[in-house]
Amino acid sequence: MLEIKKLHATVGGKEILKGMNLTIPKGEVHAIMGPNGAGKSTLSYLIAGKPGYDITKGEILWDGQDLTAMTPDQRAAAGVFLAFQYPMEVPGVATMTFLRTAINSQRKARGEEPMKTPDFIKLINAKAEIMGVSKDMLRRPLNVGFSGGEKKRMEILQMVLLEPGLCLLDETDSGLDIDALKTVSDGVNSLRSPERSMLVITHYQRLLDYIVPDKVHVLSDGKIIKSGDKNLALELEKNGYADIVNAA
Amino acid sequence: MSNTGNIQKTDAETGFSGHFDKVGNDLPGDSTITQMRQDAIAQFNEKGLPTRQLENWRYTDLRFILKDAFAPLERAGSVTAAKLDEALGALGDIEASRLVFVDGYFSAELSADFSTMKNVEAMPLSRALSGETFSKVMKQAQPDLDDSIVALNTAFMADGAALHIEGDVEKPIHLVFVSSGEQQGLVTLHNHISVAKSAKVTLLESYIGLGQYGVQVNSLTNLGIAEGAEVNHIKYQAENLETTHLSTLNLKLDDKAIYHEHQFNIGAALSRHQHFVVFDGERAEFDMSGATLMRGTQHCDATLLVDHKLPEGRSREMVKCVLDDTARAVVQAKVIVRPHAQLTDGHQMMQSMMLSEHCEFDAKPELEIYADDVICGHGATSGQIDEDLLFYLKSRGLPDIEARGLLIQAFVGEAIEKIENEEIRDALTGLAQNWLAS
What we know:
The complex is a heterodimer of chains A (248) and B (438).
Chain A: E1 2-11, E2 14-24, E3 29-33, H1 40-48, E4 53-62, E5 65-66, H2 72-77, E6 80-83, H3 95-109, H4 117-130, H5 135-139, H6 148-162, E7 166-170, H7 178-190, E8 197-201, H8 206-210, E9 215-220, E10 223-228, H9 230-239, H10 242-247
Parallel strand pairs in A: 3-8, 3-9, 6-7, 7-8
Antiparallel strand pairs in A: 1-2, 1-4, 4-5, 9-10
Chain B: H1 11-23, H2 31-47, H3 62-65, H4 81-88, E1 97-102, E2 105-107, E3 120-124, H5 125-128, H6 132-141, H7 148-156, E4 161-165, E5 173-179, E6 185-195, E7 200-209, E8 215-225, E9 230-238, E10 244-253, E11 258-265, E12 270-279, E13 285-294, E14 299-308, E15 314-323, E16 328-337, E17 345-354, E18 360-369, E19 375-383, H8 387-394, H9 400-416, H10 422-434
Parallel strand pairs in B: 1-5, 4-6, 5-7, 6-8, 7-9, 8-10, 9-11, 10-12, 11-13, 12-14, 13-15, 14-16, 15-17, 16-18, 17-19
Antiparallel strand pairs in B: 1-2, 3-4
């Protein structure tokens, strides 16, 4: 279970989150929507541990563990995965080398044996095909020269391979055409399980047609100002944020 | 113009002269070689060690740095095959024909049997020097370079590899120069390599330092590549941290000769890799890329002089340096394009990744162009590890040191990714990735 309690956070000295509360039990998918600048991406970076994002008050607990006391790699080994809004291009790092290093680093942190090469190849081939990641993409340096859609598919491939307990999806739908949106959503949905919590950050309701959330929250000016079921997203799509923000 | 400005000789300068007086007559070779040695030490005595006043030694003040002249090592220390394999690490697993020298002395025991090998004639230089024909070849190949390190090499050269490549050689030839580190001393190596028309060979040249004592290595390679021949040369320098490694490559390229070099430098307190490259034929190609990883107080200098004498030559120099602590890397490349060398295509790139605030990178590209129809360019950059990339890798579970290691490997990767031999390429990629954690 993810528990965010009275979270205040600053970026570059400016307060972005102002006492935010959020609980995502295992087995649930929650969506966070909100206008630009509400603090949605900041929230995902705070959970993943990006340097430069400072918590001034409050807590982030995952399965009862204080994530804020952990380094980003320790958080990853504990099951946190952030699918980036803008996945980084890493020239010179072969995609396969990266994937294998990531899998084995997490296994090592959990005291498990490294994955054997034939098992790794078999796993990659199977999952890559499902995610529409071509052999050619796997041969190239990580994300280098990939289209926006290819980068997002690569993000979700990593998520499927690493099988995290907490999936954070930061505007995964941005830059995707309908077909890619479907592939990516199928990948995400394949991970839905009673053991897993998911947080989907999006501007648009469209993604939530494919990844149907258990709860929808509206984040504005650093706080959750309204929560509801999936119908809240439909309402927002129809009426915009203005009414809710003004009412808050 | 000769540099005779050194009024008072340093301990190292008088030391080298004194050592030559003692051992000069016992070094191998006939009267031709003996004369070459005497001329060389006379040249050294006149010029002394190079100082910053010489433009190509500007960032490596050898006269100041080199405090002592070590005496030539009198015998080889003990290095077993198992110890050597361990020291070579992943490079020890590469399938290659080895020619091994311990403390500057040929080791038949550790070397492969070259007598039955196809298209290769190989013998230790110490043996080759005793033949009259060879000494004439040596004299002819000897570069007329106004350089004190080359002069010292000629004066003291004791052993090395004498190779003639006649045709295509299937397996790489691995020249291994290992220092036992059992005592300090001078090791002077001289390789003489000729590659016949249309031949093709991969040379792997490794310098490994064991033990605690530092040595002064002075290594010179005379390499002549005949028409249409191709040499892929990988040089791996991992001397111990007490060692001074001075090396010179004197390279001549005939028509359409191809030379590709990949350097990987992680060892020695001080290392200098100087190249003198002459395009003696048309449409030849020189492509050198280097990965230099230095930390502590290490100092590594790559200085190249590339002389395009004839048309349509192509030259590339790319050196990537990763520097930590107070380490320093120097890259200087001077490319001369003579009036006849039309349609020359030359490019240089020097880049550093600086891991600390106190390291230093000196990059000096130079072009001297006398032809009017050429493409020549150069560039230099300095940067740091990209923090956003680092976070991206860490967010996937890579611990800090592994994430940094991967980004370091990615940075120098461009310098090794073109190595044709996959085993060597993978071995060096692994070494780059693990350098920070090692």
